[in-house]
Amino acid sequence: MNDEIRQRRWTFLKQMMLIRRFEEAVATAGAEKAFPGHYHLYIGQEATGVGAMAALGPSDKIATTHRNHGHVLARGADPEACLAEIMGRANGINRGRGGTIHLCDPELGFLQTSGVVGSVVGLAAGGGYACKLKGDGSLTAAFFGDGALEEGIAFECLNIAALWGLPVIFICENNSADALGMAKGGYPTLVHAANDLRSIPGSLGIEAIRVDGTEVEEVHRVVAHAAAHCRAGKGPLFIETVTRRWAGSAPLWPELATGITDIGMATGRTKIDDGPHSYWYRHNDPVLKLARQILQDDHSARMQIELLDEQTQAHMRAVVERVHQSPYPELATATDFVFAQGAA
Amino acid sequence: MAETSISTYRSAIIDALAEEMRNDAGVFLMGEDIGKAGGVFKQTEGLFIEFGAERVIDTPISEPGAFGMAVGAAMTGMRPVFEVMFGDFMTLIMDQLVNQAAKVAYMSNGQFTVPLVVRTTMGTGSSLGPQHSQSLYAWACHVPGLKVAVPSTPADAKGLYKSAIRDANPVLIFEDRMLYGLKGPVAVGETSLVPLGQAVVARGGRDLTVVAVGRMVQHALKAAERLSEDGIEIEVVDPRTLLPLDVETIACSVRRTNRALVVDGGAQQYGAGAEIAQSINEAAFDWLDAPVMRLCAENIPVPISRTLEPLVQPDESRIVAKVKELLVGHRWPDREDDSP
């Protein structure tokens, strides 16, 4: 293994840990009723967001769905601004107007994060059309869940993207089952007649790849392949990343079924019991998985991994504290930006 | 005096699109059959020849997908003009319009804009039946973040399109199909711009203000001529845009005439007519000599039959009758002695 791959693994682990601790902080704040409303966690899917974002260029556009926290953080957004947005604060990434399902930063290339699951596919295809018109080699990546394929707009946009050869990477994070659902055999899709989701873009002639969405290196590799395909003017590509959703969507599953992550389960400090989630801890948790891979390559990395985790947790504790103390938006700003001003 | 030429409503819109497309490479058209075919109502005729398939884009029959793409492209720096062939098919794009386009500027604290135009047709008179004849602009007006224009003349059609394409927000423009052949003077170039949110007094008068929407303006102007023969002079005000609504111009007129009738081609229930009427009540109540009245489309689907269809929307005769009724019929009890 060369140093470049080693270095990249550490970068991936750092980002995935940040997302994990961030989401645990969201779930904790949610359980404490520190903010009203719903939220959808990315725990279990970190490897997809991190691996994919690393394969995209700075001028590429991204459209993502309601389970977006991980995507926005993986692209480099400030966790404090993100948490403040989720908690409706004035220093939020959108000044407390969008909230959890609309975290969005145009500086990072985000077009939109949408709460309507299929819509993002339409917006992404439009972004892809604009990228093609601009002709600057940029592309648009659409992140959506398997549920989006139940809506007609996804099929329509796959069709149009194929017809017009648009530079769009359709990244379907198939998270159709959480821990419990998977145990009941609800995988790979709960409510779709097409059990192999690749058959949908496949019927339109779009190259469709399935990848283990808990393997960050694998995701990175196929998204890099897709990006090169788009930039070469070869049209869209579809990637199904098979992920596991640890937590559900609050308020349906308000608690973290698998609890707060113990990195000791990767470093050997903590024994994994034969409880209901043992298989998850051993095989599916992308953070523990990557930590184990790093350890396998370098046994001396144990301290470094635990230190990184401690630092991440301390960082998030400080973020949470500051956000709790940060102000809500001024009432007078409620009517700002109903309409954009002047020329766009 | 600006240079003008005589144009139809249809070609005034085509001119507006062509001028803005020449002016800004980011402007492009999307819709069904708008390319080589030139539109089912010839409403894009000639544009494909000048601008080609890259900018006059025929979409599949995929309204949600294609309109979602228009929104995405607008957020990525383009200025799409998206055509919904029949206003009735707005039902298909509602998520993208209501939950995406209208909300983006607000949700992102102004970081994003959606500079796009939705072009669509509406109205009765073509015997196209219940799913192809509705006038659904009030739906769009209910959503904060959208702008809505309803041009009634060739000059306004051109001027409003040019302004809408240059606007940073999503703007919907409803064209009444029965107006396509209407001829009138149209200004050239920059002098043709009509600002969004500015009503116009289409005809001066002293006895009553008729606020009419879209094609109803044309009916009201004809009604005004007939009423004039009986010595009744009505003022006709055309809001031109329903959102933003220029309440002040409308209220100024009512403060002079002391009576108001709102004529709206959309269904009466919860419609634009109600919004305009209540705006008059709030802005000119002390000047009113009679309740503000509405004359709107019936609350029924638009039937296809030649005998039934004309009953749905207000026309010249019904405006004349309603104005007369309003001038003699509805007075406040303590104003019994006032002569109309």
Task: Please tell me about this protein's structure.
The complex is a heterodimer of chains A (344) and B (340). Chain A is of the alpha/beta class. Chain A has 13 helices and 8 strands. Chain A has a single domain, classed as 3-Layer(aba) Sandwich (Rossmann fold), CATH 3.40.50. In chain A, the strands form 2 sheets. Chain A has a 6-stranded parallel sheet with strand order 3-2-4-5-7-6, sandwiched between helices. Chain A is globular. Chain B is α/β, with parallel strands linked by helices. Chain B has 2 domains: 4-192, Thiamin diphosphate (ThDP)-binding fold, Pyr/PP domains (Rossmann fold); 200-328, Rossmann fold (3-Layer(aba) Sandwich). In chain B, strand 2, helix 2 (47-51) and strand 3 (56-58) form a beta-alpha-beta unit. The radius of gyration of chain B is 20 Å and the shape is globular. Chain B starts with a strand and ends in a 12-residue tail after the last helix. Chains A and B meet through helix 5 and helix 6 of A and helix 3, helix 4 and helix 5 of B. Chain B: Its cofactor is thiamine diphosphate. Chain B: GO terms for molecular function: oxidoreductase activity. Chain B: Keywords: Oxidoreductase, Thiamine pyrophosphate. Chain B: InterPro entries: THDP-binding, Transketo_C/PFOR_II, Transketolase-like_Pyr-bd, Transketolase_C.
Q: Say what the CATH topology of the largest domain in chain B is.
A: Rossmann fold
CATH architecture of the largest domain in chain B: 3-Layer(aba) Sandwich
> What structural class do helix, strand and pairing data of chain A support?
alpha/beta
Q: Would you identify the regions of chain A where 5 or more consecutive residues have pLDDT less than 50? A: none
Reported for the largest beta sheet of chain A, the result is: 6 strands, parallel
Helix/strand order of chain B, N-terminal first: EHEHEHEHHEHEHEEEEHEEHEHEH
Q: CATH homologous superfamily of chain A, by name?
A: Thiamin diphosphate (ThDP)-binding fold, Pyr/PP domains
Helix run count of chain B: 11
Helical residues, percent of chain A: 40-55%
What is the CATH superfamily classification of the largest domain in chain B? Thiamin diphosphate (ThDP)-binding fold, Pyr/PP domains
CATH architecture of chain A: 3-Layer(aba) Sandwich
How is the biggest beta sheet of chain B arranged? 7 strands, mixed
How many beta strands in the DSSP annotation of chain B?
A: 14
**Domains of chain A (count):** 1
| Uncertain runs of chain B | none
GO molecular function (chain A): pyruvate dehydrogenase (acetyl-transferring) activity
Protein name (chain A): Dehydrogenase E1 component domain-containing protein
Catalytic activity (chain A): N(6)-[(R)-lipoyl]-L-lysyl-[protein] + pyruvate + H(+) = N(6)-[(R)-S(8)-acetyldihydrolipoyl]-L-lysyl-[protein] + CO2
GO biological process, one term (chain A): pyruvate decarboxylation to acetyl-CoA
